[in-house]
Here is the input.
Amino acid sequence: MDKLDLKILARYQYDTRRIAASIGSEVGLSAAAVQRRLKALRAAGVIQAELAQLNPTALGVRITCIVTISMAPSSAPHKQLDRFKRELSASPAVQQCYHVTGTMDFVVIVTVAAMEDYAAFARRWFESNKMVARFDTHVVLQRVKVGVGVPIECA
Here is the structure.
């Protein structure tokens, strides 16, 4: 990756609908050159996915919870822990899941339509799971900033 790739990515990651000619005029390349570079960046795995950011409230998904999870000491052999991560990540309610350092083992972002849905989710994933020693739920009051953009320096 060179500086031109970084300049392209800095623009493309926030609006994948921008036409290549528009990006090209800003970075000094033709539309075809921008398209070739984007194709190469996809093939290299730098661009992992191109997604639509949906408004959860407009879709009736009004509750976002940030959940911290502490696993029971030595109760989670690697295979079980890997299965827990895989299955939790496959849940449509889970937007993000991080295995972290510190006093907690996981931070999970969960979105649901109603608190009853979150209660059922918590019972299934945390309360009935012997590997989970403790979990704390923080209900989001306001979405201040949401995104997956990566800071790119391409001076």
